[in-house]
Amino acid sequence: MSEKILTIRLLEEKYGVCRLNNNESIPEWIKNSDFFSITKTCDELSIVCLEKDIPDEVKCEKEWRILKVEGQLDFSLVGILSSISTILAKSGISIFAISTYDTDYILVKEKDVDNAMKALIKNKYEVIV
Protein backbone atom coordinates (compact mmCIF):
# COMPACT_ATOMS: atom_id res chain seq x y z
CA MET A 1 0.00 0.00 0.00
CA SER A 2 1.39 3.43 -0.91
CA GLU A 3 1.98 6.08 1.72
CA LYS A 4 -0.21 9.09 2.17
CA ILE A 5 1.27 12.40 1.01
CA LEU A 6 -0.10 14.68 3.74
CA THR A 7 -2.97 14.83 6.19
CA ILE A 8 -5.71 17.39 5.66
CA ARG A 9 -8.37 18.16 8.26
CA LEU A 10 -11.83 19.51 7.38
CA LEU A 11 -12.75 22.23 9.86
CA GLU A 12 -16.27 22.01 11.21
CA GLU A 13 -17.72 25.48 10.74
CA LYS A 14 -18.77 27.47 7.67
CA TYR A 15 -16.78 30.59 6.83
CA GLY A 16 -17.24 33.75 4.82
CA VAL A 17 -14.81 35.82 2.77
CA CYS A 18 -15.53 39.52 3.33
CA ARG A 19 -14.48 42.66 1.50
CA LEU A 20 -14.32 45.96 3.34
CA ASN A 21 -12.88 49.30 2.28
CA ASN A 22 -9.14 49.65 2.79
CA ASN A 23 -9.60 52.53 5.25
CA GLU A 24 -11.89 50.60 7.62
CA SER A 25 -10.71 49.35 10.99
CA ILE A 26 -10.52 45.66 11.78
CA PRO A 27 -14.03 44.89 13.07
CA GLU A 28 -14.70 43.43 16.51
CA TRP A 29 -17.13 40.81 15.15
CA ILE A 30 -14.34 38.71 13.64
CA LYS A 31 -12.71 38.06 16.99
CA ASN A 32 -15.24 35.39 18.07
CA SER A 33 -13.74 32.92 15.63
CA ASP A 34 -11.03 30.34 16.37
CA PHE A 35 -9.88 30.98 12.80
CA PHE A 36 -9.79 34.30 11.02
CA SER A 37 -7.49 35.82 8.44
CA ILE A 38 -7.01 39.50 7.68
CA THR A 39 -5.31 40.94 4.62
CA LYS A 40 -5.05 44.66 3.97
CA THR A 41 -3.89 46.13 0.68
CA CYS A 42 -4.08 49.57 -0.85
CA ASP A 43 -7.34 48.43 -2.47
CA GLU A 44 -9.21 46.55 0.24
CA LEU A 45 -9.46 44.94 3.66
CA SER A 46 -10.20 41.25 3.14
CA ILE A 47 -11.36 39.09 6.05
CA VAL A 48 -12.10 35.39 6.36
CA CYS A 49 -14.06 34.47 9.49
CA LEU A 50 -16.99 32.48 10.79
CA GLU A 51 -19.99 32.98 8.54
CA LYS A 52 -22.38 33.29 11.49
CA ASP A 53 -20.52 36.36 12.83
CA ILE A 54 -20.70 38.43 9.63
CA PRO A 55 -23.23 41.29 9.80
CA ASP A 56 -25.83 41.37 7.01
CA GLU A 57 -24.58 44.69 5.60
CA VAL A 58 -21.04 43.41 4.94
CA LYS A 59 -20.13 42.45 1.37
CA CYS A 60 -19.13 38.80 1.51
CA GLU A 61 -19.13 35.41 -0.10
CA LYS A 62 -20.47 32.75 2.28
CA GLU A 63 -20.70 28.93 2.37
CA TRP A 64 -16.95 28.21 2.50
CA ARG A 65 -15.40 25.25 4.32
CA ILE A 66 -11.75 25.01 5.30
CA LEU A 67 -9.36 22.17 4.58
CA LYS A 68 -6.30 22.57 6.83
CA VAL A 69 -2.98 20.94 5.97
CA GLU A 70 -2.00 19.33 9.28
CA GLY A 71 1.36 19.97 10.90
CA GLN A 72 4.00 22.61 10.46
CA LEU A 73 5.27 22.94 6.92
CA ASP A 74 8.91 23.86 6.47
CA PHE A 75 9.53 26.87 4.23
CA SER A 76 11.85 24.75 2.09
CA LEU A 77 8.98 22.46 1.03
CA VAL A 78 7.94 23.07 -2.56
CA GLY A 79 4.65 22.51 -4.35
CA ILE A 80 2.23 21.63 -1.55
CA LEU A 81 -0.36 24.26 -2.38
CA SER A 82 0.26 23.74 -6.09
CA SER A 83 -0.39 20.00 -5.77
CA ILE A 84 -3.62 20.44 -3.84
CA SER A 85 -4.92 23.23 -6.06
CA THR A 86 -4.13 21.22 -9.21
CA ILE A 87 -6.00 18.17 -7.90
CA LEU A 88 -9.02 20.31 -7.07
CA ALA A 89 -8.84 22.26 -10.35
CA LYS A 90 -8.88 18.99 -12.31
CA SER A 91 -12.09 18.16 -10.43
CA GLY A 92 -13.61 21.54 -11.35
CA ILE A 93 -13.40 22.86 -7.77
CA SER A 94 -12.58 26.51 -7.18
CA ILE A 95 -10.48 27.39 -4.12
CA PHE A 96 -9.53 30.33 -1.94
CA ALA A 97 -6.12 29.68 -0.37
CA ILE A 98 -4.58 31.13 2.77
CA SER A 99 -1.04 30.43 3.90
CA THR A 100 0.25 31.12 7.39
CA TYR A 101 3.68 30.78 8.94
CA ASP A 102 2.99 27.14 9.86
CA THR A 103 0.67 25.72 7.21
CA ASP A 104 -1.83 26.16 4.38
CA TYR A 105 -5.61 26.44 4.47
CA ILE A 106 -7.69 25.72 1.40
CA LEU A 107 -11.24 27.04 1.32
CA VAL A 108 -13.77 25.28 -0.88
CA LYS A 109 -17.46 25.94 -1.24
CA GLU A 110 -19.77 23.81 0.90
CA LYS A 111 -21.35 22.34 -2.26
CA ASP A 112 -17.91 21.08 -3.37
CA VAL A 113 -16.48 19.81 -0.09
CA ASP A 114 -17.40 16.13 -0.56
CA ASN A 115 -15.95 16.04 -4.08
CA ALA A 116 -12.83 17.87 -2.87
CA MET A 117 -12.23 15.30 -0.14
CA LYS A 118 -12.79 12.40 -2.58
CA ALA A 119 -10.35 13.91 -5.08
CA LEU A 120 -7.69 14.42 -2.40
CA ILE A 121 -8.12 10.90 -1.00
CA LYS A 122 -7.87 9.46 -4.53
CA ASN A 123 -4.55 11.32 -4.85
CA LYS A 124 -3.09 9.83 -1.65
CA TYR A 125 -3.96 12.57 0.84
CA GLU A 126 -5.41 11.53 4.18
CA VAL A 127 -8.54 13.57 4.95
CA ILE A 128 -9.86 13.79 8.51
CA VAL A 129 -13.40 15.01 9.12
From TrEMBL:
InterPro entries: A9CJY8-like_N, ACT-like_dom_sf, CASTOR_ACT_dom, CASTOR_mTORC1, UCP008459. Residues 60-120 form the CASTOR ACT domain. Pfam families: A9CJY8-like_N, ACT_7. Residues 13-56 form the A9CJY8-like N-terminal domain. It comes from the Bacteria. This is Amino acid-binding protein. It comes from Clostridium diolis.
